[in-house]
Amino acid sequence: MCLTKDEMKLYKEQGYLFVPALFSQAEVEIMKEQLPTVFAEASPRRILEKQGNMVRSVYGLHRTNEVFRRLSQHPRLVDAAMQLLDSDVYIYQFKVNAKAALGGDVWEWHQDFIFWQKEDAMLTPRVINAAVLLDDMTEFNGPIFLIPGSHAEGVIDMSARHENGNGNGNGNGHSMPSWINDLTADLKYSLSKEVIGNLVRTKGIVAPKGPAGSVLFFDANIVHASPSNLSPFDRAVAFVTYNSVENIPADVEKPRPDFLVDRQVMPIVPLGDDALFM
User: Which domain holds residue 127?
Assistant: First the structure.
């Protein structure tokens, strides 16, 4: 997909771009068919909600699932990411976030880059998220909230809420490591009520809504959140995070797992437009 000059300008100004129905319903169904299997696999890559009985996220699926590998290399995503970052890109992170009906928990107000900067030594926010809706996103099922233009504030540095895991089980047969606090409802670098209040008073809040197959591209520094899913229908989103090949993180003493930070820094060669049907 080639973005227009107006779309590029809009993304740079507001920090996000919403493209309705970028993938067809047939393509969405191919992806959704994978979810029962990937959600059922008990591994450290699967993160459960605080209650311990519902899947919150599954990471690293571009390395373990053929359909999601093809999605991560799809030209409709990769071409747009290369345009917006003005370079070749590689996959920094891949995850599917699930919000179960009547139970999917919140994602607190935060920026993504601060996690990658402080935990992974990423150099600059020259990175972009592509959120592929696997279900319709409505005002009722925990949509993604964004503060337009907040990316222009740069990194809003907050003290870390947690420094260590709590040692409790996460439902996968493993104790919780320190990095779990980057992924749960109690985010390590969540933003304060005062910060959010000041931003919203000047910039407002938006919540893009659209059919399954729509894609939300958003900047790593845009302030965003997501409320609980109080609808009676499940809602899932596949997130592909593309990093510029000119923005490779430095080495750190205690690196996070490969399923959170992909260190296979190979520029993506986009597949054909029919990639999901192969």
Answer: 5-266
* Count of all residues that appear for the chain in the document: 278
Residue 86 one-letter amino acid? D
Of 205, 219, 217, 84, nearest to 153 by C-alpha is 219
What are the start-end ranges of the E strands in the chain? 16-19, 46-48, 55-59, 89-99, 107-110, 127-133, 145-146, 215-219, 224-226, 235-244
The tally of domains found in the chain comes to 1
- In this prediction, residue 92 has a pLDDT band, given cuts at 50, 70 and 90, of very high
Does residue 28 fall inside a structural domain?
yes
Classify residue 247: in a domain, yes or no. Answer: yes
Which CATH number fits the domain that encloses residue 236?
Answer: 2.60.120.620
The verdict on residue 184 lying in a domain is yes
277 falls within a domain: no
The 10s digit of each residue's pLDDT in 209-258 is 999 999 999 999 999 999 999 999 999 999 999 999 999 999 999 899 99
The HSE-up count of residue 251 (CA atoms within 13 Å, CB side) is 1
Give 209: exposed, middle or buried? Use CB within 10 Å, 0-12, 13-18, 19+.
middle
Between CA 42 and CA 36 the distance in angstroms is 12
C-alpha 110 chain-centroid distance: 12
Helix, strand counts (H, E) of the chain: 8, 10
**Residue 194, number of CB atoms within 10 A of its CB:** 8
Strands (E), 52-138: 55-59, 89-99, 107-110, 127-133
